[in-house]
Each structure stands twice: as structure tokens, then as C-alpha cells.
Amino acid sequence: MKTQLKPTRRKSGFTLIEVIAVLVLLGILAAIAVPKYIDMADNARNRAIDAGVAELNGREALTWGNVLISDTGYSDDATTFGAVDTALGGDYTWSAAPTVAGGTISFQGSAGVALTRAASTATQPGTWSR
């Protein structure tokens, strides 16, 4: 009697070593990507505050120029500052109304950032900075 050999079938799938290797690679990628993402969100908030400062400086310069060419001309810093629109929009909030010396502003509820304001003179507008 002749015995018949069964054809060998190739099993498909992943070995345990292959699965572990993929998990290790995913863990390494996650360890690199997550801190970068967290830093990116903080960096975006900081850039938004910088954009707000640039906007305040632009408004300050525009108001100062308008005061200079007005009939009355430049009188003092407090009068010029009083004409500047410091409301930057819904995403920005002042902890208290800004003053001629500066104030504390935040973007989308982040921690407040202290801003200082250099006074305007007859030859240059006031400037805001961190």
C-alpha cells in the first residue's frame, strides 16, 4: 500500500517577533512626536501673543500719525494712548484694562503675558513689547 503525502500548506500571518518589532517602532515614533506636538501648541500661543503685540504697535503708530496730522497735533502720551483701540478680538483677553504703562494679555485662556508700553513722544509713537 502506497501512502499518499499531504501537500504542505504555507501558513500566512505575522510572527511574534514581527509584531513586537512594529510595536517598538511605533513606541519610538510616539515618544518623538508627542513632545513635539506639545511644544508646537505652546509655540503657537506664543506666536499669537507676538502677533497681538505687532497689531498693538501698528494701531499705536496709526493713531499717533493721525494725531500728528490733526488740527491740534501731538499734545501728550496719555491723549494719544486714549485714542488707540486696544481690543484685539475675542481670542485675546486683558486681565485688566491696559494702561499707558502696559498690561497683561492672554490668548485663548493661556497664561497671561505681561506687556510693557514705551510712551509716545512728538517724534515717535508708543511701542508695545513683552
TrEMBL record:
Entry keyword set: Membrane, Transmembrane, Transmembrane helix
Keyword field contains Membrane: yes
Record-linked Gene3D superfamilies: Glycoprotein, Type 4 Pilin
Transmembrane spans: 12-34
InterPro entries per the UniProt record, alphabetical: N_methyl_site, Pilin-like
Database matches in PROSITE patterns: PROKAR_NTER_METHYL
Protein name as annotated: Prepilin-type N-terminalcleavage/methylation domain-containing protein
Species of provenance: Haloferula helveola
